[in-house]
Amino acid sequence: MSSLDEFARRKLDSLEQAHLRRSLVPTGRTDGLWVERKGRRLLSFSCNDYLGFTQHPDLKIAAIRAIERYGVGAGASRLVTGDHPLYAELEQRLARMKGDEAACVFGSGYLANAGITPVLAGDGDLILIDELAHSSLWTGARLSRAETLPFRHNDVAHVRQLLGEHRARYGCVLIVTEGVFSMDGDRAPLKELAALAREFDAWLLADDAHDLDMGAAARVGVPIKIGTLSKALGTYGGYVCASKPVIDLLRNRARTLIYTTGLPPPVIAGAIAALDLIEREPQRLELPLQKARAFTRAAGLPQAQSTIVPVVIGDAHAALEASRLLEAEGFLTVAIRPPTVPDGTARLRFSFSAVHPDDAIARVAELVRSRIIGNR
Length: 376
Ligand SMILES: *Cc1c(COP(=O)(O)O)cnc(C)c1O
Prior knowledge:
- This protein is α/β, with parallel strands linked by helices.
- It folds into two domains: about 120 residues, Alpha-Beta Complex (Aspartate Aminotransferase, domain 1); about 220 residues, Aspartate Aminotransferase, domain 2 (3-Layer(aba) Sandwich).
- The protein has 15 helices and 14 strands.
- The strands form three sheets. It has a seven-stranded mixed sheet, sandwiched between helices. A four-stranded mixed sheet has the order 1-2-3-12, covered by helices on one side.
- Strand 2 and strand 3 form a beta hairpin.
- Helix 2 runs antiparallel to helix 12 and helix 5 runs parallel beside helix 6.
- The longest helix has 16 residues.
- The N and C termini lie far apart (about 45 Å).
- The mean pLDDT is about 95.
- The structure holds pyridoxal-5'-phosphate.
- Pyridoxal-5'-phosphate (PLP) binds next to helix 5.
């Protein structure tokens, strides 16, 4: 065996022993949140398709029309010839939805986060980042070369302390957090963080990938708002909303925008169709939270703060067992294990969508209450 293969085998063996080895499972989806996995049909609580838009006929038609008119690929990066006219419409409408001056669309939420922070902070600057922030936000912080200090999850007093101790020694200071935390479903104290940021002349960046309250960050004065087209909006891509000068600077300097190909036209057209639907029926955005709250009520869990509800099990092996138990009953809830979540906090992560049937929510809640929480 080559040393390379041996290296890979050894790493995989240690993951296996810790119950942390992962594998790709082909998962077909053609009908709402029903998925086909290993020959079985399961109802998924592990999709971020909050509004059921990934299969919505309006989005499909918009994408098909865009393919027929414009083809399947952008053919170049946005700053060369890949800036399809559909981008301008999408960006204007995203900015309006988020209550901001301007927006910039990236290839994905991950690319947005990896590219934006290094434009805003560098050598001699400071980044304060929530310890539970998404991997892509950490990637941006690391690539920036700025000093990066994590703060305790949602702990405003800790942020104040760090700003008090360190602010004076640095040029720019960026505070990085998530509007709704992707693995915990809780909300950041954005109002308090925005006030602190103003007090210490720091800048607040909030990743709203999972927040269906589209105006939440603008209402409390968050200047840099990250979003994704890949979750509630049902297609693919990431975006940032901010003031015009900030967006112009990002267009000039973000490497993950400049050195990568533009999105395929059908993807942009699909996202615009999603915005049409949201503008026509804004109540749709409230349904996933209502479903999540029906679940937490029936399962005897604390009231859901967002569409994401974690059921923390602790041990990675036990989390896999809990996931198998639900799978045997026809429900798919993927176990989330370290390093996606901290050691000892492996969990089932439920995400609720406008298209989940109420009777299925009641059944899965009953299973969680009687067979999983009872045994923790
Ligand atoms: C999913 C997610 C991303 C990445 O978005 P993609 O468009 O899927 O790349 C970024 N941040 C958070 C908080 C997320 O949950």
